[in-house]
Design a protein that fits this description.
Length: about 500
């Protein structure tokens, strides 16, 4: 397989400069032609129209910004806090890591990957060079086999330190590890746990809601399995008969156990299972509780609840958990925006649907993070939700979903609105032996830095900020905002 010709961001930058030079020439020559071309015949008129289009196109290229090299070099040195990732644990021969995601996508009907995440992305070749000293400009099977051997050698040499070694080489100081459970090699100094709490939302018979899409059928089976695991960890055999007992014997103890085991936040992948619309702020909290209690006790022993009443119970549980998370000092993470699987329901993943949680006065002590910042169609809306005092967004996933150029446009929107609420994230995940979490980590870390540099260069050139402020904003997005939010002690 032939991998593209651009190997490094420097080469990309020099190509950008060439395009800029060509555009300047085409703008000038286009203007000259426009002035001298007579408009006396139809052909002349058409030519003139085409030239206007060429000149406009050239202008738009002129407006596309490249990163200030000095600023980019400074940004490259920042050791980042990764707000969201799925690093694998180290496994022995024959052992498997099933805990890297509560809802893994690989068992689903296969779909196409977005272009940036495909193996032919030249950034992966650059990652092999940077991480493992890869010497080739192609990805021929022999060369890739050599690469995998080189990787295995470093893994053996580093042993239990390998995951730390990877973080050092991708420029990450601390990574929030969104996993069902932590594991070998994920040193708690470098990897902070973010467990999943969706299972707690679905205590009843799920067969009515699980049939909505083929993917959800699989996802609900995972949630049911996880709820059993959480119950077992708490030493419980069966579901309590009443909602109050479920809250006091299962939900609160599960959250407290997660906190004790080092969790800094909890994560909901609810957008894969239902809409993020958790209903309006309850006008009558006692009535909402009564309704939830009735549904729980009626169906906990059997029967399939109707969707509206089950959804109201889930809404109640979500608000209860969010409140408890605030009490325990755990931030609440939500998947927002584009998700995996060919049956994913994008409309239900719009972060604007979370507004009633953000506007709930009883939840203002809970910090919410819109993971992926509405990745894809909703990133602009996400920027304006950051006005809420307890709401943050990370740009994880966007780092492998879109190019650094496209990401820079999103980041400029965010940096120009509420820069104190922006968090860097990779959303790295285990993948194939040759393009695995290490390469995705390197690619996303690089793209994030390039995108930040492009956005901040534009703001500098437009006179919005000084060079010093540009670097400060980069530090906030890559590091400082996260250390403040989670109270991390870092360098
Ligand atoms: Zn993720």
């Amino acid at each position: 397989m032939e991998i593209g010709k651009l190997q490094s961001s420097n080469e990309l930058l020099s190509v950008g400069e060439e395009i800029l030079e060509i555009s300047v020439i085409s703008v000038i020559s286009g203007m000259v032609l426009l002035a001298i071309l007579p408009d006396f015949c139809k052909l002349g008129h058409m030519l003139k129209k085409m030239l206007v289009a060429v000149v406009l196109l050239a202008f738009s290229v002129l407006h596309a910004q490249t990163a200030d090299p000095q600023l980019l070099a400074e940004i490259q040195k920042i050791k980042a806090i990764d707000n969201h990732s799925h690093p694998p644990k180290l496994v022995s021969v024959g052992e498997k890591d099933d805990d890297f995601d509560a809802l893994p996508c690989d068992p689903l009907e296969p779909g196409d990957l977005p272009v940036v995440a495909r193996p032919e992305n030249p950034q992966f070749l650059a990652a092999w060079k940077a991480l493992y000293g890869y010497r080739y400009d192609d990805a021929s099977p022999d060369h890739v086999r050599e690469l995998v051997r080189a990787k295995q050698k470093i893994m053996q040499q580093q042993d239990d330190n390998y995951s730390n070694w990877v973080l050092d080489h991708v420029g990450i100081e601390v990574e929030l590890a969104n996993r069902v459970a932590m594991g070998r090699g994920l040193n708690p100094q470098r990897f902070r746990w973010v467990p999943f709490d969706d299972p707690l939302l679905f205590p009843l018979n799920n067969s009515g809601v699980a049939n909505e899409t083929p993917d959800r059928k699989f996802f609900y089976s995972r949630e049911e399995m996880l709820l059993k695991r959480y119950m077992k960890d708490l030493g419980l055999n069966g579901m309590p008969a009443a909602l109050d007992q479920y809250l006091s014997q299962v939900v609160t103890p599960a959250l407290e156990a997660q906190k004790r085991q080092g969790a800094v936040a909890i994560k909901f992948e609810a957008a894969y299972l239902r809409s993020l619309d958790f209903g309006p702020v309850p006008a009558d909290p006692a009535a909402a509780l009564g309704d939830a209690q009735r549904t729980y006790s009626r169906f906990i022993t059997g029967g399939i609840p109707a969707k509206p009443e089950y959804v109201r119970l889930q809404d109640y549980l979500l608000r209860y958990i969010a409140h408890e998370a605030g009490r325990l000092g755990l931030a609440v993470h939500f998947h927002t925006g584009f998700g995996c699987g060919t049956y994913f329901i994008l409309a239900g993943a719009n972060p604007v649907l979370l507004e009633s949680l953000f506007n709930d006065p009883t939840l203002r002590k809970t910090n919410f993070v819109m993971l992926h910042g509405g990745a894809g169609p909703f990133s602009q809306q996400a920027a304006y939700l950051l006005a809420k005092p307890n709401v943050y967004a990370d740009f994880s996933e966007q780092t492998w979903l879109t190019s650094s150029r496209k990401l820079s446009e999103v980041l400029r929107d965010w940096l120009e609105s509420f820069p104190e609420k922006i968090l860097f994230g990779t959303d790295l995940y285990p993948n194939t032996p040759e393009i695995n979490w290490e390469e995705v980590g390197w690619q996303t870390s690089q793209s994030a830095r390039e995108a930040l540099a492009i956005a901040l260069t534009g703001m500098m050139q437009d006179g919005e900020i000084t060079r010093a402020r540009a670097l400060e904003l980069a530090r906030m997005a890559l590091h400082d905002n996260a250390t403040k939010l989670y109270g991390l002690q870092t360098h």
